[in-house]
Write a structure and sequence with these properties.
single chain; alpha+beta; 4-stranded antiparallel sheet; oxidoreductase; Phytyl_CoA_dOase-like; EC 1.14.11.55; Ectoine dioxygenase
Length: about 270
Amino acid sequence: MTASASTPIPAPALPKPLSADQQAFFHEHGYVVLRGLATQQECAALLAAAQEALAHAVPPVELETDVGYAGAPASREAEGGHTVRRLLDADSRGTPYTEWARDARVAGAIAQLIGSPVHLSRAHHNCVMTKHPAFGTATHWHRDSRYWSFARNALVSSWLALVEETVDNGCLWVIPGSHKLTLPAERFDEKLFLRQDIAENRELIDTARPVPLLPGDVLLFHCDTFHAARANQTGAVKFSAVFTYYGPDNDPLPNTRSSARPDPLVG
């Protein structure tokens, strides 16, 4: 029997890459690593595109001096003043980044964690993170939700390693379970980093663990999971593709950066 023209054809189901154990680990710890989610061919194509964009500083970019973290060049005129920290708006840079940002393997995994289809945030992350030797600065302990404006802090980010990520070249560190903590305002500085002069914060930071990755590995982490990254102590630039997703019942607040651009439903 063939379906009539009026018979709705069900949409193909998204892949479900996460096991029950992986989902439980994420909900308990605020992160999970998916080993080898991207193929080496995909990573090579993404890396080549990022290296080409970096070589020509194809806009839009964010420079280390724009962020102004400790150790960053004081100005664009200073030594290292044009060191790129992020290649911004990666989703709009065309193939292969547009495809990866919408990839069903990522969207399917995050849909499992959120419990609904997901939107790709074009305002937050949506970038290639580059960490340079010498002028690539460390990032202190923070939650990504600090500057985001949504109905709920229920967003998940996808971090794809394009090269090997180690402690030496500045891989991410996470504080397991920190997405479930509620901390008073006085434990943060004016930039909403954890203050390290407070004993309770130092005890919390002592529970942190690094997340080394191989090319093709994907780290999924909750927007309230505290994370940080050290400087790159090697001689090569580190590249990571980072995107953020949220459910359709978690609207960005009006008249904020989070709602400034339309966000596609990707799975």
